[in-house]
Write a structure and sequence with these properties.
By secondary structure, this protein is an alpha/beta fold. The protein has helices at about 20-25, 40-55, 75-100, 120-130, 145-150, 165-170, 220-235; strands at about 1-10, 30-35, 60-65, 105-110, 135-140, 160-165, 180-185, 200-205, 215-220, 240-250. A 5-stranded parallel sheet has the order 3-2-4-1-5, sandwiched between helices. A 5-stranded mixed sheet has the order 6-7-10-8-9, with helices on both faces.
């Protein structure tokens, strides 16, 4: 029976690979890489570096363009559903065309596949269409965990919850009755659009890579510097992956 691994490979540092992930890499026959765009070729090179170190001899790599998502439409949910369906078309063809009857394939997923990633939903859709394979999710070190570690802090405080949200939702206002909020997928620097009074920020971009950016401090004072660093990095690299923790001060 065909088998698929969805392998979390960490936030960017090759050493983020867990022992479980390394063992899954060594058991895989075919690795599928969905190429987002030319600016992210360095991320593909990092994947290939991991394969060179941990994959078994004779493995195959199949690289294809990823489905594009409409990021301009106000119909966000419909756009995501359409994108996932077109990704499922790509994944279905990859498995049909490149995976033998008893072979194991794998998708290498940044961070943790279970946190703000569509691959699980895409694979479930392919199975719902009649796919005849099994699959397994290998958790990875997420950018959220890497962020807290790099700032030598914790995501939660005693007796308090932490909420994970998106930049799009944060722009609507800081969540009520929550003191600690992790923000991902923020393409608009939403931390500059909210009331900074009483908030601290712990920011990280390109976590675990040579281009890593870290900044922390009171939001009112630190936000302009982060926005400047962010814009410079995006202009230089053509893309950005960042995450941050917003925290109400104790006093």
């Amino acid at each position: 029976m065909q088998h698929i691994f969805l392998i979390g490979i960490g936030a960017g540092d090759p050493d983020h690979l867990t022992l479980q992930a390394a063992k899954a890499l060594a058991r895989t026959d075919v690795f599928f890489i969905l190429d987002k765009n030319q600016e992210r070729q360095e991320l593909i090179r990092l994947r290939r570096q991991m394969l060179a170190e941990h994959a078994r001899p004779g493995h195959r790599v199949v690289e294809v363009p990823d489905a594009e998502r409409d990021r301009t439409t106000p119909a966000y949910t419909a756009a995501v559903d359409d994108w996932r369906s077109r990704r499922a078309d790509v994944v279905e063809r990859l498995i049909a065309d490149h995976l033998g009857p008893d072979e194991t394939g794998a998708f290498l997923v940044w961070g943790d596949p279970s946190l703000y990633d569509s691959v699980i939903a895409v694979v479930d859709e392919v199975l719902a269409r009649g796919g005849g394979f099994g699959y397994e999710v290998i958790p990875g070190i997420s950018s959220v965990s890497a962020l807290a570690a790099r700032h030598r802090t914790t995501l939660t405080r005693v007796g308090r919850p932490v909420q994970i949200t998106t930049g799009r939702r944060l722009a609507e206002g800081f969540p009520e009755e929550v003191d600690d909020v992790v923000v991902m997928l923020d393409g608009r620097a939403a931390f500059t659009e909210i009331d900074p009074e009483g908030l601290e920020i712990f920011y990280g971009a390109y976590l675990g890579t040579p281009d890593e950016i870290l900044a922390a401090g009171p939001l009112a004072r630190t936000a302009p510097r982060i926005r400047e660093l962010r814009e410079e990095a995006r202009a230089r690299k053509g893309w950005i992956m960042d995450t941050y923790l917003l925290r109400r001060s104790e006093n």
